[in-house]
Amino acid sequence: MDKLINDFSFGLFFWQALILVILLILLAKFAWKPIMNSITEREEGIKNALLAAENAKKDMQNLKADNEKLLAEARAERDTMIKEAREIKEKMIADAKEEAQAQGEKMIAQAKATIEGEKNAAMAEIKSQVSTLSLEIAEKILKGELANNDAQAKLVEKMLDDAKLS
């Protein structure tokens, strides 16, 4: 260090100081403003990026709230639609049951009417057959009894006596 102090030259110091001042002036005139501008621009860019990030965060929160609101509305609408569908299904089933019961009762009434009609027709046919059979039997009996004249006379007297008593 003593060597530095002993070798000190005022002229060299002056020129070095002058070169430093000129260098500082040149830097201030030509380089300082562009460097400061780029630093300022970078600072502005960072601020803008932070603001954009904050705005994006707020937008995301708003979108999330809107999505939750829409989701709640969709769930409520879905529940309403399911409830309406169940009510419609139950009404359709009840209507189908009522219609089936009415159809069944109508078919039963028709079957009863058909059975009654067939029963009456069968009874009429049986009565017709019984009367025909009775007439045939009576005819055969009368033919057998009225084959001779004495039997005919006795039968006429008996019928007259029955008619007088009545």
From TrEMBL:
Membrane topology annotation: Single-pass membrane protein
InterPro entries linked to this entry: ATP_synth_B-like_membr_sf (IPR028987), ATP_synth_b/b'su_bac/chlpt (IPR002146), ATP_synth_F0_bsu_bac (IPR005864), ATP_synthase_B_chain (IPR050059)
Subcellular location: Cell membrane; Endomembrane system
Keyword Transferase set for record: no
One GO MF term attached to the UniProt entry: proton-transporting ATP synthase activity, rotational mechanism
Keyword Ion transport: yes
Any one GO cellular component localisation term in the record: plasma membrane
One Pfam family linked to the record: ATP-synt_B
Keywords, alphabetical: ATP synthesis, Cell membrane, CF(0), Coiled coil, Hydrogen ion transport, Ion transport, Membrane, Transmembrane, Transmembrane helix, Transport
Transmembrane segments: 12-32
Coiled-coil intervals, chain numbering: 46-91
Function comment: F(1)F(0) ATP synthase produces ATP from ADP in the presence of a proton or sodium gradient. F-type ATPases consist of two structural domains, F(1) containing the extramembraneous catalytic core and F(0) containing the membrane proton channel, linked together by a central stalk and a peripheral stalk. During catalysis, ATP synthesis in the catalytic domain of F(1) is coupled via a rotary mechanism of the central stalk subunits to proton translocation. Component of the F(0) channel, it forms part of the peripheral stalk, linking F(1) to F(0). The b'-subunit is a diverged and duplicated form of b found in plants and photosynthetic bacteria.
Assembly, per entry: F-type ATPases have 2 components, F(1) - the catalytic core - and F(0) - the membrane proton channel. F(1) has five subunits: alpha(3), beta(3), gamma(1), delta(1), epsilon(1). F(0) has four main subunits: a(1), b(2) and c(10-14). The alpha and beta chains form an alternating ring which encloses part of the gamma chain. F(1) is attached to F(0) by a central stalk formed by the gamma and epsilon chains, while a peripheral stalk is formed by the delta and b chains. F-type ATPases have 2 components, F(1) - the catalytic core - and F(0) - the membrane proton channel. F(1) has five subunits: alpha(3), beta(3), gamma(1), delta(1), epsilon(1). F(0) has three main subunits: a(1), b(2) and c(10-14). The alpha and beta chains form an alternating ring which encloses part of the gamma chain. F(1) is attached to F(0) by a central stalk formed by the gamma and epsilon chains, while a peripheral stalk is formed by the delta and b chains.
Protein name in UniProt: ATP synthase subunit b
Species this protein is from: Flavobacterium profundi
Protein's gene: atpF
